[in-house]
Every structure is written in structure tokens, then in C-alpha cells.
């Protein structure tokens, strides 16, 4: 099996190299495509090598990252995007059986409040505004993501942990995007969507012409993989180092400031947990013979990325759109959201905007035909669910941090500093790292909210489900069926 896969990877790398030579007639470009093809094969090999992959986790992660990729690749072909979402709903309906068993568990999960709470509120708002068509579309979205939650709970009862399969699906998606963009990975300019969304972003890696994903989404997707694999003692040193290398490379390729900030926050939390383990137990944190070197490695990688990306002026403080400022127009979008909320009817103040099904934002400076996302999870909760949406967002955030063990760590910090004995945590270290490091990204990304871009959301949801169901399971509980894994 491994020999066949290696042979297939080599053939694929040679094939993309040959295609690039045919397209450009340039030997150097062909060699660059060959290297990129080998990188893509290595990423796929890492995914395949992970222990603990379950097919349910792989399918769950695949549908979410697949929906995100297709929504960028075929943004003007709604039939493909909606068809994929329909298939997603059908598969989740099958995986969620029996459908009513876990309904009582839903309010206890932070991801439910973050992922489907605002859809429920949005449906109610549309009905109160007598916008039946928009309400029907939101019911469809709500149905898909509610079924996703129930499918995660039902699958977790069988497999105990879906998160490895989910990040494996993310790795396969990264590998596919790398293979698609192999001909231009090392070029200064890259393929971007033809719809205008990639304007002034040709220097950032999106994938290839036939498979595209927004650079911020791609960079953060790679970082999610790093956080799940890098700190965990369940994986080998080679797998952990490989994951970190992939994350660093894609921060550089995508030139994503949000991913950089996310990685910096994760590096800080990881260093704290390495120190924390010297005084109290930490679940699933890999033992390092040189903890100081392990803690320093992410910071060294980030300093290198910062330097080669142009430093403060050429990277972190860069204005990427004319007149958009450092926030790339986000500040103007947020101002528009608050203006619309202030000027809107009482129903929309309480239940969110009902302008369209996804409550997108329209700015005069961008044109009436451009639908903008909020690029801020908190502002997005206000736009999609009004005051009630913000309340649901805060409840979800509290529950998520609680299940990740963050509140417990804060309460026990004084005892740890005094070297007093404290209780053993129940959440794994990687979940605490992910939950804390995603907090800064709330300011510049919607990915904490459930939707076609909810890759972070679905991983956190699966992790919460594993923690909650493990806590309520009887000591002698065993999975209903063996949890398959790939060698």
C-alpha cells in the first residue's frame, strides 16, 4: 500500500511538472512545479500517516473544507455550491441517526451557540419581517449545520474522537490546492478568482486556476493542523515537525497576517503549557527533552517569516487595497454594520439583518453588486443575529473556553504558582492552545462561526463533543464499533 502511494505521488509530481513545461516551455518553471508537486505529495503523506483517523472524521472535515474551497472556486456557479451543500446535508442526516438522541446535549455545547444559534435567530427575524424567501433559505442553512452538529455527536459516540480525521481532511485539501497551484507556487504572481475578489492579491497563494481558496483561509487552515498535531504526544516527532513546517510555509505563501497573529498566540500558549507541565499534569502534551528549545522553535519560525515577508511595513502594516487602510477595508465594513444596525427597524436590531439569507454587507464604496463578509466573528454575530446573536456568541464563547479547560487553568493559576497540588485536567493541551489562540482572530475572521468557512468551528465542535461525551460515559464504555485508522 505505501509503495503504491509513493509511486502515485511521484507520478503526480512528474505529471504536473510535464504540464507546466508544456504550458510554458521553460525548464526552470517545470522543475519548480516538480518541487511543488513533491511538497503536495509530502503533505498528503503526512495526512495518510496519522494514527486515529476515522472515516466519519474524514468525511466531516472534508465536507467543511470542501464547501469553503468550492465557494471560492465556483463563486459564480451557485448550482455547484448549493449541490455540494445538499449532498453534505444528506450525508450528515445519515450520520446523525438517531436524530433525537442528542437534542438535550445541544445547549451544553459552545459550538452550537456559535454555529447554529444565529441561524435560528435569523430565521425568526426574517419571519417577523415577513421575508419568507429569506427565511426559507436560512432554514436550509440551519438544517445543514444542525445536522452537522448531530452527526458529530453521533459519530463521536462511535469513534470517540473525530479531530484527527478532520485535520487529515484539511491536509488533503491543502495538498490538492498545492498540486493545483504547483506551476506558480514559487512565482511572484499567482492565480486569483476572475470575479474581482483577488484584486491586488496576486502576490498571495490561492492554489491554482481550477482550485482556489482564500489565502487567509488557507493559511489558517494550515495553522489549525499545526495546533492539533504539533503539541500532541500521540504523534511522532517527524509528524509534529512536518506539521509545523507546513504551517510556517503556508503563512509565508499566503502572506496572511491573521494566520501570523494566530500562530504567535499559539506559540505563547504552548510555551506557557510547557512550563505549566513542570508543576501540574497536562493531558496529551508531548514530552520534550529540551523544553526550552521546543518553546523557542515556533518563535524562531515566526521571526523568519516576519523578516522574509517584509517586516512591519511590508507585511503587518501593509495597505493591500487602495483606500482600505491596514485593515484592508474591514474597518469600513464594521462601520457599515453598525450604521445599518442603528438605522434598522427594531426587529433587525434584535434579530439581525434580513437583507439577504447570509446577512452580507453592502458598502457604497464597493458597489451594490459586491456582497461583503464581516471578517469579524463578533461583528458577524451582530449582523446575523442582532443583539440576540451577540448574546448567543458570548454564551458559546464561555462554554467553549470552559470545555477547553481555560477557565479552570485561570482559577488554578495561583495554586500552580505556589506549587500546590491541583486536579488533573480533562481537556487535551492542543484544545486549550487552539481555544486561546483563536481569540485574537475573532477580530479579523468569521471562521469561529458555523458556515461554509467554519473549518475552525467544526474542529472545535468535535473536540467539545469528545470532552463532553467522555466525561459522561461510563468507565467501562467501549465504542459501538472499532475505530479504524490508517497505518
UniProtKB/TrEMBL annotation:
Transmembrane segments: 31-50, 57-74, 80-100, 112-132, 138-155, 162-180, 210-227, 258-276, 292-317, 381-401, 422-443, 455-474
Name of a matching Pfam family: Wzy_C
Entry-linked InterPro entries: O-antigen_ligase-rel_domated, WaaL-like
Subcellular location: Membrane
Keyword Membrane: yes
Major subcellular location class: membrane
Any one Gene Ontology cellular component term annotated for this protein: membrane
UniProtKB keywords: Membrane, Transmembrane, Transmembrane helix
Domain of life: Bacteria
The protein's name in its UniProt record: O-antigen ligase-related domain-containing protein
Natural source organism: Virgisporangium aliadipatigenens
Upper classification of the organism: Bacteria, Bacillati, Actinomycetota, Actinomycetes, Micromonosporales
Amino acid at each position: 500500500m505505501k509503495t503504491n502511494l509513493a509511486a502515485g505521488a511521484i507520478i503526480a509530481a512528474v505529471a504536473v511538472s510535464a504540464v507546466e513545461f508544456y504550458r510554458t516551455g521553460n525548464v526552470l518553471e517545470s522543475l519548480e512545479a516538480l518541487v511543488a508537486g513533491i511538497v503536495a505529495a509530502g503533505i498528503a503523506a503526512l495526512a495518510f500517516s496519522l494514527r486515529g483517523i476515522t472515516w466519519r472524521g474524514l468525511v466531516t472535515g472534508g465536507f467543511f473544507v470542501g464547501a469553503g474551497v468550492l465557494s471560492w472556486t465556483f463563486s459564480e456557479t451557485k448550482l455547484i455550491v448549493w449541490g455540494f451543500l445538499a449532498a453534505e446535508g444528506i450525508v450528515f442526516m445519515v450520520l446523525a441517526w438517531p436524530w433525537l438522541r442528542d437534542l438535550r446535549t445541544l445547549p451544553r455545547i459552545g459550538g452550537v451557540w456559535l454555529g447554529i444559534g444565529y441561524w435560528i435567530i435569523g430565521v425568526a427575524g426574517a419571519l417577523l419581517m415577513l421575508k419568507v424567501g429569506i427565511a426559507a433559505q436560512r432554514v436550509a442553512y440551519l438544517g445543514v449545520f444542525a445536522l452537522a452538529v448531530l452527526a458529530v455527536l453521533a459519530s463521536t459516540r462511535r469513534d470517540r474522537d473525530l479531530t484527527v480525521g478532520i485535520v487529515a481532511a484539511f491536509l488533503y485539501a491543502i495538498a490538492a490546492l498545492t498540486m493545483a497551484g504547483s506551476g506558480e507556487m514559487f512565482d511572484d504572481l499567482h492565480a486569483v478568482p476572475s470575479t474581482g475578489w483577488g484584486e491586488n492579491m496576486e502576490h498571495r497563494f490561492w492554489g491554482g486556476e481550477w482550485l482556489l481558496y482564500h489565502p487567509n483561509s488557507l493559511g489558517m487552515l494550515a495553522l489549525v493542523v499545526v495546533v492539533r498535531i504539533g503539541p500532541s504526544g500521540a504523534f511522532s516527532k517527524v509528524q509534529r515537525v512536518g506539521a509545523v513546517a507546513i504551517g510556517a510555509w503556508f503563512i509565508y505563501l499566503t502572506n496572511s497576517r491573521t494566520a501570523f497573529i494566530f500562530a504567535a498566540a499559539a506559540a505563547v500558549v504552548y510555551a506557557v503549557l510547557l512550563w505549566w507541565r513542570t508543576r501540574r499534569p497536562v493531558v496529551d502534551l508531548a514530552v520534550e527533552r529540551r523544553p526550552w528549545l521546543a518553546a523557542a522553535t515556533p518563535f524562531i519560525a515566526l521571526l523568519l517569516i516576519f523578516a522574509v515577508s517584509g517586516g512591519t511595513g511590508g507585511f503587518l502594516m501593509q495597505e493591500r487595497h487602495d483606500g482600505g487602510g491596514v485593515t484592508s477595508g474591514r474597518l469600513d465594513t464594521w462601520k457599515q454594520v453598525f450604521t445599518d444596525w442603528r438605522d434598522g427597524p427594531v426587529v433587525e436590531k434584535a434579530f439581525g439583518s434580513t437583507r439577504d439569507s447570509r446577512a452580507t454587507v453592502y458598502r457604497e464604496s464597493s458597489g451594490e453588486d459586491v456582497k461583503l463578509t464581516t471578517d469579524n466573528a463578533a461583528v458577524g454575530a451582530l449582523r446575523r443575529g442582532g443583539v440576540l446573536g451577540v448574546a448567543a456568541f458570548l454564551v458559546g464563547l464561555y462554554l467553549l473556553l470552559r470545555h477547553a479547560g481555560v477557565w479552570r487553568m485561570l482559577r488554578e493559576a495561583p495554586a500552580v504558582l505556589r506549587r500546590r497540588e491541583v486536579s488533573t485536567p480533562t481537556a487535551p493541551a492542543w484544545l486549550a492552545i487552539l481555544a486561546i489562540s483563536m481569540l485574537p482572530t475573532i477580530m479579523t475572521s468569521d471562521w469561529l462561526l458555523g458556515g461554509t468557512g467554519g473549518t475552525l468551528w467544526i474542529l472545535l465542535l468535535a473536540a467539545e463533543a469528545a470532552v463532553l461525551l467522555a466525561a459522561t460515559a461510563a468507565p467501562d464504555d467501549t465504542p459501538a464499533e472499532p475505530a479504524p485508522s490508517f497505518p
